[in-house]
Sequence to fold (190 residues):
Amino acid sequence: MAAETLMTAQYSIDAAKSRFTVTAYASGLLSGLGHNPVIAIRDFTGQINFAAEELSKSSLEFLVQAESLTVQSDVSDKDRSEIERTMKGNVLETGRYPEIVFASTEVSGTRLGDSLYALKIQGGLSLHGVTRTQSLVTQMVPGEDSLRAYGEFTLRQTDFNIKLVSVAGGALKVKDELKLSFDMTARKQA
Fold:
């Protein structure tokens, strides 16, 4: 039994049973008229290696297809189309940078209960042709055949050489900081 608990369990993220979103916030003189769009990340894959008895041996890697980002907010079809066109063409430049990748380099945390862990995951986030260190804080709940991880983190677009969107002569623009939220389910590998 002791040897079993020291093992690292491997899981594959199940995108169909997971949620991963980005929230952008409007600023500027006309921000009250603007949207704070919530963007759904639809196409992503990933692996989680979880070592319950030695959390530092855990790891996370995920890959997002940048073209899969879609507006989830309740906006008109015209606004949805315009936001997605701008996001994919001008902001993320998905033709040049089709993938967003995260690979952990360090995991630390504590056990909060029988099957609840609080983890801080540091790693390299590659976005828009730039790789920077990014921290994620997550609650992780391992089960017999699956694992759930949920949390949120922020990032600054300018850290990844992304031009901030601005319209109406700067009277309406998107703030630099984005909030990313995730609630992921992963299936245990045999």
